[in-house]
Amino acid sequence: MVQMAIPRGKWIGVRVKRVEDPRFLTGDARYLADLRLPRMVHAAFVRSPYGHARVRGIDVSAARQAPGVVAVLTHADVAALPPLLDPIPLEGLKKTPQRVLAGDKVRFAGEPVAVVIAEDRYLAEDAAELVQVDYEPLPAVTDAEAAMADGAPLLFEDLGSNVVYDQTYRFGDPDAAFRQADRVFKKRLHTNRFMASPMETRGCMGSYDPGLGELTFWSSTQMPHMLRFSLALFLGIPEQKVRVISPAVGGGFGQKMTLYPEEIAVAFLARHLRRPVKWVEDRRENLLAATHGKEQIIELEAAVSNDGTLLGLRSVCIGDGGGYSFNTASALVEPQAAALLMPGLYRVAHYETRVVAVVTNKAPVGAYRAVGWTAGHTARELLFDEIARELGLDPAAFREKNMLRADELPYTTCTGMVYDSGSYVESLQAALKAVDYDALRARQAELRQQGRYLGIGVSPYVEPTAWGSEIALQVGFPFPSHDNARVSVEPSGKVTVAVSTHSHGQGHETTLAQIAADTLGVDLADVTVLFGDTATAPWGMGTYASRTAVIGGGTVALAAQEVRQKILTIAGRLLEADPADLVLADGTVSVQGAPDRSKTIAEIAIASYFDNSVRAAGEDPTLTATRFYDPKATYSNGCIVVVAEVDAETGQVRLARVVSVEDCGTVLNPMIVDGQIHGAIAQGIGGALYEHLVYDDSGQLLTGTFMDYLLPTTTEVPPIQVEHLETPSPVTVGGIKGMGEGGLLASPAAVAGAVLDALAPFNPQVEALPLSPERVLRAIGKIAD
Question: In the predicted model, is pLDDT for residue 191 greater than 60?
Answer without folding.
Answer: yes
